[in-house]
Amino acid sequence: MTTPSDIIDWHEAMQQCGEDEEFLRELLADLQSEMETQVLSIAEIIQNPQDGPYHRIMRSAHVIKGASANLMCHQLRTTALHLETAARECHEAGGTTSPPAMQQLVQQRFAEMQQAATNYAQFLQTLGI
C-alpha cells in the first residue's frame, strides 16, 4: 500500500518552496500536467515505436524524473529513473533490434511509472488539487 510519504516528502517540498503552500500546490498541479503529457507521449511511442523510440522514452522519463525530484515526489522520481535507465540501455543495445527482454523491461518500468502517476494524481485529489 502506498502512503502519502511514499508519494511526497511534504516537509522537504515545503522547504523547497520557501514554506509557501500555495506555491507548492501550484507546482504540484504543474507537475501533474507535465507528467500527464509525458505519460501520453511515452504510451504513443510504445504503440508506434519509430524514430529512436527508446531515446525519446528516455528523454520523457528524464523530464518526469527531474520535475518530481525538485518537488520531493520520491515514488515518481524513482519509477521515472528506472524507466529512463531501462530505455537508455535498450537504446544503446540497438533500440527496436535490442533483445526482447530489454524491450519488455521498458514496458514493465513504464507500467510502474504509470502506477506512480496514478498514486500521485489520487494524492493530489485528497489535497483538492
Q: Count of DSSP helices?
A: 6
Q: Provide the β-strand percentage band.
A: under 5%
Q: How would a crystallographer describe the biggest sheet?
A: none
Report the count of strand segments: 0
**Class by helix and strand content?**
mainly alpha
Mean pLDDT: 94
What is the string of SSEs from the N terminus onward?
A: HHHHHH
Indicate the percent of residues in helices: over 70%
Which radius of gyration do the C-alpha atoms yield? 15 Å
**What are the segments in which pLDDT stays under 50 over at least 5 consecutive residues?**
none
Distance between the termini: 22 Å
Shape summary? elongated
Description:
By secondary structure, the chain is an all-alpha fold. It has six helices and no strands. It is 79% helix and 0% strand. The longest helix is centred in the N-terminal third of the chain and has 27 residues, at 21-47. The mean pLDDT is 94.
What is the compact description of this entry?
With 129 residues, this protein is mainly alpha-helical. Helices cover 79% and strands 0% of the residues. The protein has six helices and no strands.
What's the topology here?
Blueprint: H1 4-7, H2 10-16, H3 21-47, H4 53-70, H5 74-92, H6 100-126
Helix pairs in contact: 3-4, 3-6, 4-5, 5-6
How would you describe this structure in keywords?
129 residues; mainly alpha; elongated; 79% helix; single chain
